[in-house]
């Protein structure tokens, strides 16, 4: 029996005439830490929204386990209602989801143990992302989906957020994160999906992708994919665009 937490079969999404995701088939299994990487505009957010159930495909099908809360989604800049503390915020979401755990349990799991009494507007950018991660755990969804949770964070805090993400991946829970932080992705992810030109270009453990591409790093793997799928992007970067 498959332990998939979400499966896409021949899925396509277009905005007007532009196809963003083309006949994509992939499955995310319980216990996987999956990183979705690709250049700006390659469709990472669109695919994350599809995986989280916030978007339906134009073609193809999506299947997921039949549970009350099948996925949680953390947008790039999570926003919380001002005036509440971190603990009150989590208590609010726990009531909505009918979850039994105390707010402190979620705070402890993401390294915010001492921040329960802080008003959400007094949290740093990194702590706000961690509170978002805590909120994503409410209701115990089998899939947690995060969009660039370390953008704008200092390197120490970014490492802390990646470590907190790794900690919440368990036997029965998978995590999918879109990120441009390729050093952290290479170090922490079990599986990397490289998007380019509307399709999955590479899919596998980071060390295997680096070896298979005869590259020195995941950063170099991605550069090769961009050169193959979007040569015009490199021409613009080199100052040749529009001439
Ligand atoms: N609602 C929409 N209507 C029209 N085009 C859209 C819409 N949403 C996204 N797009 C386009 O779809 C493409 C993919 O967008 P998406 O945000 O999924 O990419 P991304 O890989 O997450 O980008 P980034 O790394 O910059 O966040 C982009 O060209 C974007 O302009």
From TrEMBL:
InterPro entries to which the protein is assigned, alphabetical: AAA+_ATPase, ABC_transporter-like_ATP-bd, ABC_Transporter_VariousFunc, P-loop_NTPase
Name the SUPFAM superfamilies for this protein.
Answer: P-loop containing nucleoside triphosphate hydrolases (SSF52540)
Provide this UniProt record's keywords sorted from A to Z.
Answer: ATP-binding, Nucleotide-binding, Transport
Q: Which Pfam families match?
A: ABC_tran (PF00005)
Output the superkingdom of the source species: Archaea
Which residue ranges does the record assign to the ABC transporter domain?
Answer: 6-222
Q: Give one GO term, molecular function aspect.
A: ATP binding
PANTHER family attached here? ABC TRANSPORTER ATP-BINDING PROTEIN ALBC-RELATED (PTHR42939)
Which protein is depicted? ABC transporter ATP-binding protein
